[in-house]
Amino acid sequence: MITRRGFLTGSIGALAAPLLSACSPGGAAAGGGHVLTATDVHVADYPTVTAVKWIGETLERQTGGRLKLRQYHSGQLGRESEAIDMARFGAIDITRVYSGALNNAFPLTQALCLPYVFDSVEHMRHALDSGIADSVLQGFESRDLVGLAIYDSGPRCFYNTKHPIVEPHDLHGLKLRVANSDIFIQLMRMLGANPTPMSLGDTFSGMETHMIDGAENNMRSFHSSRHFEAAHYWSQSEHSYAPDVLLMSRRRFELLSPADRRLLLDTARASVQVMRTQWDASEDKARQAVAAYGVKFNAVDMPAFHQAAAPLLRQYLQQPDIASLHRRIRAYA
Predict the structure, then answer these.
(1) Could you tell me whether strands 67-72 and 94-98 are parallel, antiparallel, or unpaired per DSSP bridges?
(2) What angle do CA 93, 85, 19 make, to 5 degrees?
């Protein structure tokens, strides 16, 4: 859940103070321009990071250097929950956030994270491009944020240190890292696992010290976080296609001229295709790399997982807004 705790107790403030003085996020640059700051917990060559880098290069080229972007990747400025609050309070400009971390504060994002809402990457991309992304992005304005773009991030699957997951029963008793999202916590419990909310950065050590037995994530993150060195079983459950969201501080956005706002929005939307192209190529390479390391892959009993997750889906579809968005998504299947 998004809270002010970290910001108000000083953990975010401690991060923000040197950032504000050293980088002047959204502030004046030489020649009367703006320097925008962007954060991401992922590594430098992760597709979302490179897509935002492309945004910065495009803005700088289109404005003759008047708009610039400075990136802080690899979690240099803290966790996603901290980045969300920093953006809301105007300490940073842009951040890329996993949609599961937004579910509690921005209910429309729940429709994107529910189990087995999307049938495939192609289905997800078609639905997002056909108006679903715009509907979700508009919902951020009420909480001091501007939704710039939605980056898809492939299917989320289970991986663990113990054994293959073929049926939901195989999850029973396993301690699995999940993001701090009600949907994912409920889903893991419904499938019989013991959900353990934990940051992505703490997951590797959690598996090595046997605090947890595994996690669920996409292939690209499984590789870039080097979780494959601890968890040698990957089970292709594809239980969620929860995408990533690119957000901007509304107060920083409104300091830009109307023309620059339009340019930023258009460039962010265009970056979606940049991200997807890089994602597809890097996901294939990641799968090859973890297979070469010795990770064992297995298919799962999809009908059994669909059936086990169905009660959670029905629960959330009792909300009219979620049900409406779900119907629109399924229409593009």
Answers:
(1) unpaired
(2) 50
